[in-house]
Each structure stands twice: as C-alpha cells, then as structure tokens.
Amino acid sequence: MATSSSSSGFGSIADAGLDDELFADLESDLESVDLSYGALLGRGLDMNALLADFFACTGVDGIRTVTQAVAHVPLEISPYEAIEGVGALEDLKSCANAVQAEIACAHEAAVTTDRTRRGVMEKNPQQGIGADVAMARHEPPRSGTRELNYSRMLCQSLPFTKAGLTFGVINDAEARIIYRVLKDLDEDARAELNARLFMETHTCFGLGGKKLESMLRQWALAYQNPTEADLEAKAAKDRYVNVYPIDTHRMKIVGVVPTEIGAAIAQVLARAIASAQAAGDTRNAAQIAADTVLEGLTGIKDFTNIPVALELVMTDRTLMQGHPEPAFLQGYGVISAKKARELFAGNPDNPLATWVRRLYTAPGTGDLIAMDRKARLFTGGLKRFITTRDQFCRTPYCTGKVQHLDHVVQAALGGETCAENGGARCAWCNATKESPDWSEIPVPGDRHSIRITTSSGHSYTSSAPRMPGTEDYAVHPTEPPSPPRTPPRRRQ
Prior knowledge:
Elements: H1 13-31, H2 37-42, H3 47-58, H4 60-70, H5 79-118, H6 129-136, H7 143-156, H8 159-166, H9 172-182, H10 187-199, H11 201-204, H12 209-223, H13 228-237, E1 240-245, E2 251-256, H14 259-278, H15 285-298, E3 310-313, H16 316-320, E4 327-329, E5 333-335, H17 337-345, E6 356-361, E7 368-371, H18 381-390, E8 404-407, E9 422-425, H19 427-432, E10 439-443, E11 449-453, E12 459-463
Parallel strand pairs: 3-6
Antiparallel strand pairs: 1-2, 3-4, 4-5, 6-7, 8-9, 10-11, 11-12
Helix pairs in contact: 3-4, 5-7, 5-8, 6-7, 8-10, 9-12, 14-15
C-alpha cells in the first residue's frame, strides 16, 4: 500500500485521485455486503460496544439520534410484549436520569473550575449554573440549585442508589425519596443505609413511595434521632400561608403553623361560629369561619363590597358593547367579561370607594402599550404598568410571583428606565441574571420580548403574555347592562 510522505503533502492531486479510487472500491464492496441487524449479529457484532463507540464519536447529537429512533418502536405487538416495552422504557428513563445527573455534576465542576481560574465570582462560583441546568430541563430556574444538590449527592455519596438507577432497579421518584431522607445524615450513616438498602432489595422496593420513605425514616432515626426541641424549632421555622387561584371564581388559602397557633385559631373560629349561630345567623359553619378569617385579615365585614384599587385590563367592546371577551385582573388573572363589568360598575346599593386604572392593548398583538394618563399622577405608575403587563416572572419556565422589577439591560451598562427595558422577576431569577456571561436584551416582537442568553451560551426568548384584545371571538355582542341607579364613586 502506498503511503504519502510529509513532503508530498496530504490532499495533492495524486492523493485525491487515489482516495477517490479507494472510496469507489469500498462503496462497491459495501453494496455486496449484508449489513442488516441480523447479519451483523451473526458475525458476532457486540451491540453494546457499537453503541458505546457511537456515543463516544457523536456525543450529544448521538443522544438526540437515539431519542428519535426510540419513537419508532413498533406498537403492533402482543399484550405481553407491550408491558415489557413499558418496563424497558422505564428502565431507559431511569438510566437517562442517572446519566443526566452525571452530566450536570461534570458541567458544574467545569464551570466552577473555569471561574476560579479567571477569578470570577470567587465568593459564589456556582451562581447561575443551576438555572442553566433547570432551563435545559424545561423547569423553573430556581429549581436548578435543588437539582444540582441532588445530582451531586447521587454521584458522590449515594453510589448504590446511582447504580440502581442506572440499571433500572429503581426509578427517579424512588431515587429522590432516598436522597430526601438520607441527605441530612452524616456521611458514615448515609453510606451504611445506602448500602443496606440495596442489600435488601427484596424487601425495600416495590413497596410504593410512602412505604419506602417510612421505612427509610425508621432506619434513619436510629442514627440521628431529633429531639422534641428540634421539632418545635422546625415547626416554627416552616410556618407559611399561601394564596392561589384554583379556578375562575375562587382562590384558596393554605398554610402550616405550629400546633399551639393552630389550636388558638381553631378556638377563635369555634367561638365565632357558636356566637353567630346562637344569634340566628343563616350562614353555615364553614361560611362563618371564612368570613371571620376575612374580617380578621382585612377589617372588612361585607365581603361583597371590598374597597380596593383595581388594575383592570379590558377592551372597550367588553365594557361598552357587552362583548364576552374575557378581561385581566391584576393579582388574579383572567376573569369573565360579566365579572369585569360588575367590578367596573361596583355595587349600586353600597357604592365602593374604588378607582379603576385603565390600560390599553395594541389591536391584534395584545401588547400592553400605554397607560391611562391619569394613572401617571400616582407614584409607581410605571411599576404597576410592567407588573400588569408581565403578570409572572419573565424567565422562561419560571412561574414565580413578581417580586422585583429590574432593567433588562442593567442601568450600569446604560440601560434606560422605561417600560421597554423593564421586566418583572421573582427574587431568585433577578439575582441569577447577574451571573457571569449571562446577558439579556429587549428584542422586537408582537409583544414585549426579551432575549436571554445563559452562562452556557444557550438562548431563550421570553414574550409577555397576551392581553385582552388579542383574540378574535366568533360571537355576537350582547346588549350592554343597564347603568346602575346610583353611579359608584371613583377616586380620581
């Protein structure tokens, strides 16, 4: 066989002709060879070795190729094979979760090492890494830190759990239960229980999540038994109350408080119910309790007449023509056209000291473009405008509440303080955008849009939600309601 020397130079005309000739011969030989899967197996092909070599050569593109190939698994199979297929795909998901954790850890280590070398973010070199990982998983950025903590412990401190996940002995939900119970133990106790768990797999798995967690906690208590004082401190620390919508007409108040506070609340409500019913109140016990809580929190006795400032976004046709197009109420979300008109009109029998800030949308696109001139007289008009326009944190996949308003392009970099360069964020995402190599800019779009480029170089576009006035409705406007006999008073 002829070899080219360094003096002849690779890519010469002679070499090119020789390469074409060899390629033509090889192509001719391959056409006569049976390369079907069965024929290759008959020749002793090791599929595991082939796939390993395939991934080594193709990397991430190879993962995507195999992902698409899985979509072509035949579905016309026997019932037994169908269930086997479901199980095999579950094993595939488990293995993918284990590899995903390894890749996340490797990414964190690489970025942290690079930042340390450059002297960037020396106090917190991990900042923004979790957000990058979470967004790649199509999850809220704030969950990235939790995901990295799980991945790190899985790879470094729970080798048996990671192996079980890799080989499909457990699934992702079971692995996370193991992590959640063992993460607060010291290293020695964690290692011993992790090993014990997989030495007794015949009794540990197949129980269901709650039973597995209960068994693990029983084991863990033998190594680290918290005292009653610790539990009391934790109960006080973990107290919370949250309010969120459950449908178009109701919101739910949920919370957790220490036992003594909960008992006190229960006693107050019991007395209020007994007193109201003794006086002949026609409300049931649950309604009396709800109204008592409302009055205690707001000082308002009549829940049908709440004096509040309404940030109401609605079209003129909804207000004036009785059109059924929904409206948007700041702090809640989409409401029916009928409810919007009722809020606008108030209660004619007991008029509200209410004012309504009118906001305008661009026809077709639904971009919030202007605010009532009168609203500019109030302090924080721009803040209210951006909060109403964005509704939620603007970071992709994040559904957090609006906690901060900040410049898209930082003021330190010359960003203007205006609606176009403003964006609503939760506190976590607002801090994350200051990570090294993270950048954001407003970009043209039907609605206010931001292009976000993360530290890893991946880009996402975030557009403000559609507002009323965007959609076409194949309905006929109804007659507008009659005006109230007593016009409501509105604060100017």
